[in-house]
Known about the structure:
Blueprint: E1 3-7, E2 10-12, E3 18-25, E4 32-39, E5 46-52, E6 58-60, E7 68-73, E8 78-83, E9 92-100, E10 107-109, E11 113-117
Parallel strand pairs: 2-11
Antiparallel strand pairs: 1-3, 3-8, 4-5, 4-9, 5-6, 7-8, 9-10, 9-11
Amino acid sequence: QVQLVESGGGVVQPGGSLRLSCVGSRMTFTDYAMGWYRQAPGKQRELVAEQIRDAGSITYGDSVRGRFTISRDDARNTVLLQMNNLKPEDTAVYYCNARQVLFGTRIYSGQGTQVTVSS
């Protein structure tokens, strides 16, 4: 069973930065598009960012484009999310997501990490 373990969440003031990390195991990392989703209370889960392979194509959600940067290190089975200029509306649980793009169509998510932006 694929395992995704997130870290790096916390509480930050508006305008601050955080970096989330996700390490995948029990998987062929390069078979998956790796990304981040988030879900705020009372709202639907939404795409934050996704990257297909190291140096591959990247998709960002409209609300984070220009402030967040996704990157992945396929040699270390790691995907990062650098979040800058955080806003209160970025407060949510952030989930690491693995979407299989080769040899299957499975999707896996981690347990999530809380990000709270508050003064």
